């Protein structure tokens, strides 16, 4: 005997919020996109389309925006936000009930895809869990004397997720396509984008300042305010089916995002892969917003181009890249491992970049005969391969004690 006490995996899992949240998030990503793969392959005629309570594209949006990303967001914010605000982390009793409700709600949603009443109940359970976790984060973001900008901006993004969930409840209660549009756009522009932009604005310059020689930390508050305002306005215009006017905010937002990317010195950041991944991911934000601006301006003139290219640049390029990079970093750092992206992690990230480029390209080049088939292949194979291998590598870490014997 070496004097150590074995700990059951479930005991280790609940030692820190990021462990339970990230594990559930990885499973949610794989399951939600496996269902989407089922749909995409069914469209090729291999088998019958699933008969769900909602149109398949709405289900894809619901699970992607509501199930796949939020677990990672809550896990990260519950871990990082107390450090930002120099306060103690929320106790387990503050976040664990919320985690259980989210897991139970999305588990109920699986059979609920075929049963309308059960789907409504499932989403109510998810909403309850979401509110529990938002309350835990409120205690950090609004009860601290530290600089509140990033914490409160991220918290309001979480509040945008509540708006999206309420709209989905209306949809399940009989609301039509208009409410579905509100739910999707709120989840994208009022929830995901504010949270991701706030985190990037706070963390990328901070990480870079300790890695890049002669780096001057630069994260102007006005830039974050502009990007957040642009996201809110874009979302509102999209909800009102006035997307042809969003170029008014998309164009300045694209310029600011690209400016931040350049000023943060992405090339110098490549000396450390884990940092370079974050810079790569953030660069996609400026590209996506620029595509939205051009698409919107041309739509105002009656010219409709790009299809879903801006959306895929935002979702696959920006959100997914930042998620993979940031979650990998938190997982390594909070498990006592070196903050180094090994060869397989770097390779997975590069494959994800290829997935993003090909998926965006399929919408930018629709006249190529192979583009639709390529899009299906990328969506089914690329995404699931990257996140499947990533989950296999990182998921076991959440069930093991820290390698350095530390807490958490």
Automatic annotation (TrEMBL):
Keywords: Membrane, Transmembrane, Transmembrane helix. Pfam families: NnrS. The chain crosses the membrane at residues 20-41, 61-82, 94-114, 120-141, 153-172, 178-200, 221-239, 245-262, 274-294, 306-327, 339-358, 370-392. InterPro entries: NnrS. Coiled coil: none annotated. The keyword Glycoprotein does not apply. It comes from the Bacteria. This is NnrS family protein.
